[in-house]
Every structure is written in C-alpha cells, then in structure tokens.
Amino acid sequence: MSKNIADIIIVGAGLSGLMTAWRCLDEHPELTVMVIEASDKIAGDHTWSFNYSDILPHLQDWIKPFIAYQWDSYEVKFPKRERKLDITYCTGNSETLRNCVKPHIESGRLQVKLNSRVIDVQSDHVILSNEQKLTAKCVLDARGFNSNDNVFLGYQKFVGHVIKTKTPHGLERPIIMDATVEQLGGYRFVYCLPFSDTEMLVEDTYYTDGPELKSQEVDARIKDYIRDNLKLTDYDVTRRETGVLPITLAVDETYGTDVSGEKTEPARLGMTGGYYHAVTGYSLPEAVKSANVVCDMIEKNKPDFAAAVLHEMAYHRVDHYHEENFLRLLNRMLFRAAKPAERYKVLQRFYGLSQDLIERFYRNRLTKGDKLRILIGKPPVPVTKALQNLSEKAFIAREREKRDST
Ligand SMILES: Cc1cc2nc3c(=O)[nH]c(=O)nc-3n(C[C@H](O)[C@H](O)[C@H](O)COP(=O)(O)OP(=O)(O)OC[C@H]3O[C@@H](n4cnc5c(N)ncnc54)[C@H](O)[C@@H]3O)c2cc1C
Questions:
Q1: What's the pTM?
Q2: What is the CATH code for 4-146+252-323?
C-alpha cells in the first residue's frame, strides 16, 4: 500500500476546497491537507458576496478574515418598489481567501500542488494526468460545477465591470437588484457594489432559459447604465468578470437521495456536490456549511475519520436536496410559469415581504408560514401555468420527453 501524501487530499483549490482546508486546519492542529489544483494559482480571481446572516452563527467570527468589504444595508429597485434593507452584506475575494490559508501553507500543513489536473478521483486516492497516484485517508472532490442529466436548470448569467472613477461616485450602499432596466429574454437586473468612494462593481445579470451570453452586447449595456443611471462618465474599467451560474428547477429524486456511493466515491464539496442556493446560484454559505460538517466529523472520529466524513457528507447532500424542494418550486414558477418579460414581478412582490423572511429565504431556512406567505396573495404568474409546474416529478417527465424528442 502506498504511503499517504497527507491526511486529506482536496481536488480543486477554489472556494469550497480552500474553505474546507482552512476550517479543518484551523480546528485540528495535527491534520495535514494537500490541495491539488489544475490552474497555476489557488483561489482563482473572484469576488464572493453573501449576507452575513447566511453564515451559521457560530462561524460568523471565524469567517471575518475572509471579508474584504462589508455594508450594513442594501437596496433593491423595481418599477413599482424601491426598498432599503438593513441586512449586512459582505464580499470576500481571492486575495482574502489566499490570506486565510497562508499560515497553513507556511507551516507546511497545507501542501499546494499547482498545474496538476486530476483525471480520476476515488475516496482514498487520485490519479493525475501524468498517471501519478496520490493516496490519503480521505479525498474530497471540489472541482466546481458540472452538469448532470438528472438536474434540470435555468441560468443566471452576467457580465461585471469594476470601475474606478476620477471623483467620488456617490453610491453609499450596494444595489443588489436594480430591475428598473429593460427586461430582455427573462429577468434582468443590474447589481452595483461600491467597494470604495471611487471603486465599484457594476454587473448586468440575466435569468434566462439558456446559458448563452452575448457578452459584448452586455458590455455596451453596462456602459449605458453607468452613464444614464449612475450618471458617471469619467472612469476606467479595471477588471471584467463573466459568469454563468446554474439555477436549479428540478432534481430527479432518485439521484438527489442516492447514497449508494458513500463508501467508494469521494465526498463532494461546493458546486460539484450541488451545494449552491437553487435560486441565486451562490455557493459561499454552503461552502462554509460543508467545511464545518467535514471539520466536525474529523473531531468526532479522530484519528480514523475517513468513513465518517464520507458517510456524513453523503447524507448532507441528501439533506440539501430536501431543503431545496421549495426553492426549486419557486424557480419553476419563475422560469416556466411567468412570462419572460414579467418575471421581474415575482421578485418585485417578494421584496415587499418582511425583512426577516427575506433573510431566511437567502439562508434557505424558510418556515412553513414563510412559504405560505410567498405563495398566497395575487399571484404574479398565471394560475394554470403555476399549477402545471407544482409537481417536480411531472415537470421532469415533461422535460425528459422534450429532450428525447430533440
Ligand atoms: C464570476 C462569478 C461570480 C460569482 N459570485 C458569487 C458570489 O458573489 N457569491 C457566491 O456565493 N457565489 C458566487 N459565485 C458562484 C460560486 O460561489 C462560485 O462559482 C464558487 O467559486 C464555486 O466554488 P467551488 O469550490 O464549487 O468551485 P470553484 O471555486 O470554481 O473551484 C473549483 C477549482 O477546481 C479546479 N479544478 C477543476 N477541475 C480540476 C481537476 N480535474 N483537477 C484539479 N483541479 C481542478 C479549478 O481550476 C478551480 O480552481 C460566482 C461564480 C462566478 C463564476
């Protein structure tokens, strides 16, 4: 039997892989971890935003070093509603994430293997593209999103420009959704994050049925928005990002609750495990939650924690599938029941609900009463269309029929 290279191998040094490494190494001074990354750096080149209240209360202090920017409120704008919400909003980035794991790299307990593509991932070993085999007590797969025939998606796609203005831009707090813009192909809104008096991210976002992104056209619309809505003309674009995030409409139950691979398959973290908020496609809070599950399992089962981690993470995935039932239903209403040009009305209505409910929605901790409150009242979608999309099973059967006939 080959010697373990570390206690844990994590494949993929992105958000979820590094969050888990950071959490486990912070809590377990005897632990060693290796992250294997296909690209030439860890943590990529990203920003990740989240509501502070999305983070489990006992981890809110721990996450602080990751936070690069924090605001104590934000705004939303719709044709018939403008609102300020007193919800703390945070953004971390690749640099802060790298800083969080840096002490562990320097101590030698976190080994980083860059420019190394893994081609096979098993629960106790990986094979690299140069055929090298590396073994560990436990392997975690954090390779990012991959699509799957059992998961039915809509998309959130966006282009963002970070701009640097010559004089203060005057935006005090984030605008999380400005949906007063022209609605094109689905639900469209602009997202503005003022990093400082003279630096801001302006992102044009589309919730649409397909993943295609005509990014040059979007670039031009961002320019128009900056000129017409933010009234800014004197600025440089210092960074540009694009993204296409999965928005889950339905998951086949047999797949969502399958734990048959728990003994042989690696535990999954992040987007590859389906750990993202079904409506927003955002995965940071789930990455923190999974990191904590792995960390707790190590604590309870030291030194032979591998089987417990695999078992717990298999069931964590099933819990996540069940917890997202209602969010997937909302997505089916948004994408299949509402007419594309009127999808914004679903969100306009939602943002009229109580702030506590809105926070619970993003935390995915809605109560039965919250769910009723979201669904009752004058529906912004046609009732017959809404009823057709209630059943996830029937939806999947229809979608599969459509796929088979094309
Ligand atoms: C532009 C953009 C903005 C986003 N903004 C937010 C946000 O504000 N808030 C939020 O919560 N979410 C956001 N998301 C969504 C989500 O949180 C991110 O995509 C997040 O980075 C996903 O984390 P992950 O660990 O699953 O995957 P990633 O962070 O993508 O990490 C996967 C890593 O695995 C590596 N890898 C892949 N295959 C292999 C292989 N075979 N061998 C070795 N390494 C491999 C990749 O190079 C990568 O470094 C955003 C996504 C994008 C694209």
A1: 0.96
A2: 3.50.50.60
